Amino acid sequence: MVMHRAIVTWFILLVFFILLCLRLELRTHWNWFIVFLPLWLYDVILILDALFSVFIHCKNEAFRTIFQNKNTLLVIVILLKISAQIMICLKLEYKFLHLQVHHVLIPFWILLPILISDVTFTLFNSPCHVEWATRLC
After folding, report:
1. What whole-number distance in Å separates Cα of residue 89 and Cα of residue 99?
2. Which residue did the predictor score with more confidence, 64 or 123?
3. Angle 102-44-36 (CA atoms, 0-180°, nearest 5)?
4. Own/partner long-range contacts of 103-110 (Cβ < 8 Å, ≥24 apart)
5. Residue of 24 and 3 predicted with greater confidence
6. What is the Rg, in whole angstroms, of the alpha carbon atoms belonging to the chain?
7. Please, which residues have CB within 8 angstroms of residue 39's CB and are 6 or more apart in sequence?
8. How far, in Å, are 6, 16, 90, 130, 132 from residue 137 at the CA level?
9. What pLDDT is recorded for position 58?
10. Angle, nearest 10°, between helix axes 37-60 and 2-24?
11. Res. 5 pLDDT band, cuts 50 70 90
12. Is 40 helix (H, G, I), strand (E, B) or coil?
């Protein structure tokens, strides 16, 4: 199952990069929303899987534990990623909107501290960290 997920991920990224290269080399004049379509397809698959896991967790557990579920954070991250991609497409496609770059990157600025804190929390609370620390002593 993990192998299939990795192959699908790499294939979708390959299609996105091919579309991106074609658009950046001005060989095509596609809308930027079409170029980002493979990423959005992948995000929809991820968010449906995460929402399904959250709903199963809510069905089996109390509702207050929904924020302890890792998939809830995944849904938030995917929604922020999709909103950042939409902002980038709006900036690139519609020049008359005069969107500033720092306004376009607001979802990323919200996303980065969330991801940094999650990685830090996971890194320092993992069993491997405890094992590594005991080897140093």
Report:
1. 11
2. 123
3. 50
4. 107/80, 107/81, 107/83, 108/80, 108/84, 110/80
5. 24
6. 19
7. 12, 16, 85
8. 38, 48, 54, 11, 9
9. 72
10. 150
11. confident
12. helix
Q: How far apart are the first and last CA of the chain?
A: 39
CA separation for the pair 58, 15 (Å, rounded): 36
CB 129 within 8 A of CB 121: no
pLDDT of residue 113: 93
* Residue position matching structure tokens 């501290």: 113
Q: Which two tokens stand for residue 87?
A: 């902002």
Helix axes 106-124, 70-93, angle to 10 degrees: 150
Q: What is the rounded CA–CA span in Å between residue 121 and residue 39?
A: 27
Q: Residue 77 and residue 21: Cα distance in Å, rounded? A: 26
Domain map (residue ranges) of the chain: 2-136
In sign, the C-alpha dihedral spanning 22, 105, 94, 9 is positive
